[in-house]
Request: fold
Amino acid sequence: MKWLRQLSIYYKINGIIISMLLLLSIIIGFIMMDTTAKLLDQQIEKRGAEMAAYVAALSSNDILLDDNYALFDRINQTKNNTEDVRYILITDSAGRILAHTFAGNLPKGLPIKLSLYPRNEDGYQTMKFSSNEGPIREVIVPVENGAIGYVRVGMSEKSTQQLLSLKLYEFFITTLLVCLLAAMGSTYLAYLIIHPMRNLTKAAQQIQQGNFYVQTEIKTEDEVGRLAGVFNEMIESLKEKDFENNRLLKELRAKEEIRTVLLNKLFTIQEDERKRISRELHDETSQSMASLLAYMKVLLSKLTDENQRVLLLDARNVAINVLGGLRKMAVELRPPVLDDLGIVAAMDKYITNFSNQQGLRVSFFPPDEKLIINNQIALTLYRILQESLTNISKHAYATSVNITLEQDTGSIILRIDDNGLGIRSGAIEAARQKNRLGIYGMKERVELLGGNFTFHSLSGQGTTITVIIPITCLE
Reply:
């Protein structure tokens, strides 16, 4: 994206304004078309239901008297008087067709069994299907509550599609006109911003060369003019700030030492809180959920109503999923194996679970000898492993990861290699400035232990993260 950084502000302003306008137009257009389509579908369905109810009210006697001619004449007159009606069928209570408006055979794809249709709250049934004559929305109204028969009305969606196409065309033309006006306005806006900014750039270049006596000309009183005034004041204050900066630098170093102590305590408190929450989730919440599942099981054995059993089974499945999520959360907050079996076993188990869940090939190469490290180093290595694998799965698009844990003279070394897209230059500083604590948080953790955190990355060639922590730093 180097070309984007080198692009003029003029093109950036135009591009942003027009892009946002197009995006807004697409969103509004999608919402409008979706809403319009739903409203038209509802109107078609309502008209079909009213027409079917009308025919059903007039046809009950004819169905009882087997007067199929009267039925045929009535449904054909009704169909001919309404443009959107594709067909009308009248069936008896068993589903046998008594009369229909098709000139020949029934179209292919037309459902015959009425049991396939769900009945809504208004008492009629609807179904949308495709036949050899196109998409059809069918409305079924029972005659005498289905005891005598059914009236089935197939509504065509051709007029709806034509109306939607017309509205889409009108919206497209309107969007083009608005974008043209926006381009003209953004061009003028870009000129108003760029011209004084060029003057400020020239003044900044003079300051860079050590000339603190340069001044910028102020022609307007708007935001840009006020910026030029502030710029002039800044030049005056730069002379005084040099001496002040030396004093502040000493204070900053002292505060950095305090910050290091506070961060160390913060990470310690955070891990203690995770451990407490993990224990509460496992000992209290999980036990309560398990008791709830036991009560549900007892209740299932006593229910005789099938619908109630289905609802209770669904509720029990939800509770099982919640219990599984709680246990998984408790383990991720503070894996018991880390305290019981050590860092190698904890990392191996986490890597195995992560690889199975994400479908990512992860290879782990632990040291041959047994590692003896304190709890804080173990926690740091484990959190870095978690954060690194999470970042790889979300952003790297890698297919394989190699993780090596080894012990060198007086140090523990963790190396994580992936074959993903890589990390761009300056990622740690950018993460810190944007309050994204992933990479920056890992670096902070390692530096608090007196260690070294580095990464090497090339675009399209993967990333290598290396963590080196002195084993004796806290002993």
About this structure: The chain has three domains: 2-165, 247-314, 339-470.
